What does this fold into?
Amino acid sequence: MYCSTVCAKRAAGRARKQRNRKVRDLSETAECSQCSTWFEVWAPRQCGGYARRSYCSLPCTKRAEAARRRQTESGRRYYERYRDAGKFAENNRRSRASRRRPAVYVCAYCAVAVEGTEDQQRVTCGAEECLRANARQHTTARNARKRGATVETFRYFEIFERDDWVCGICHEQVDPELQFPDPRSVSLDHIYPIARGGEHSRANSQTAHLGCNLRKSAKVQRERVIDSLL
It folds into this structure.
């Protein structure tokens, strides 16, 4: 018995589907039309249940799709012009070989040489301090874009080398061996702060001690000197 006609119809529909449901033979096997290999037709899905396969593997599936494409005029012209001529295979081989060439990168923050390959395009050496500095650089650039300021792509290490590791605020030498959060460690300071509309560029950047940079805050250099005199 059911409380309403709607529930009765739902139950009848579920019973009808259960009667008409085919019993799957999960041990069913078939011969692949591409490589003549016998395989299990029903393969388990990652989300649950089973899916019916027509071929034994992904390469056989791709070969079958290519054969179907060759039956059309556009697909035949495509394979005759590129695939059959071997242009794609040669270009891919050269591209992979060029990307796998060994290369040496210089960390943008600690100037340590890092070995790798050309396809990695490494920016940091992988140290925790350098990764944190790289994240701060992206955050600074994103904040400048939000304010509509000009954003240049450059490495902090370029500015440090340009300024000879001299703090632009206190004009004392910066020790490159010190790491964050040491107050005497190196940091990048914007001469005209981004909070006031300054741009994130090489011309508006200078080397500074972390402590000097934090004391300067969002002030211009001249305003900080006046505050210290008062």
